Amino acid sequence: MPGFNYGDDQDEVYTPYRRVLVTGATGLLGRAVYKEFKNNDWDALGSGYNRARPYFLKCNLLDEDAVRGAIQGFQPHVIVHCAAERRPDVVERHTEAAMNLNVHACASLAKEAGGIFLIYISTDYVFDGRNPPYGENDAPNPLNLYGKSKLEGEREILRHCPGAAVLRVPILFGEVEKVEESAVTVLWDRVQEGAESCTIDHCQQRFPTYTNDVARVCRNMAERALQDSSLRGIFHYSAKEQMTKYEIACAIADAFNLPSSHLIPMTEQPAGAGAQRPQNAQLECSRLELLGLSVESTPFKTAIRDSLWPFQHDKRWRQTVFH
Predict the structure, then answer these.
(1) d(CA 19, CA 41)
(2) In whole angstroms, what is the distance from residue 46 CA to residue 183 CA?
(3) Which positions are tagged coiled coil (predicted)?
């Protein structure tokens, strides 16, 4: 379609009949979702903002006219809304901007979606973490502004687009452009420090989940929805390996045959540690499983090796692995 060929081969004749719009396609999860659809016979249009050009459509999701133009121009069958401010500490510091993206943009997108199947990516942080595991019908009680903003985003999506699906996921990691892009891969620098000891949280329980697996779930949901319009409401997806951040760091070290003796478990939260996080917001995922839409999660060590492969330039790592 004219004006919407970002990322496509201009000489390509065949165009898949199924069209998907992926917001936040420049981000960690959005890239994986865009690639999953693109590689499986979907005509995919990714949108972004600051990092959009040259591969994706530049679209300000706070501009209702721009959102309307993108949807009317591309006419997607499915929208996967990945765009969000997902860093809890940033949300606390820049609340207005985060609320605009996490809440108000949801309302605009949902209003324009009409009869299009819309998947909204949400978070386990809508729960307080005091009584896990949490099912789709359990009452949310977010502890921080990030969780509150995503919960409000859910409500805006379902209010304006009752046929939409909300997909809640936990802490994510995947193929990053820089290690700081994920709260999991950012631990790579601490693992590599080696000679200097460092403390890492050993209190809060996490379920690190691979973006490629989430992307496969999104495609499964989209393809089912095109056949069955009753697919709607709230869904949960999560990997099953439970770890603290300290245990994640040790697992990363083990995956690359690096030492972990310099990593020190911190069993008490320091004062002023930023936005409050839930102790254990484990998601119960039976709804997707019963519908046959879930996927078996990739083992953590396999996924983390794939995710961090481009960053393995450390001399100690090369000596350990290859000698």
Answers:
(1) 9
(2) 24
(3) none
Are 288 and 235 within 8 A, CB to CB? yes
The radius of gyration computed from the CA coordinates of the chain, to the nearest angstrom, equals 20
Report d(CA 245, CA 173) in Å as an integer.
Answer: 13
244-270 pLDDT, tens per residue?
Answer: 999 999 999 999 999 999 999 998 877
Where in the chain are the domains?
A: 19-311
Check whether domain 19-311 has CATH 3.90.1150.10, yes or no: no
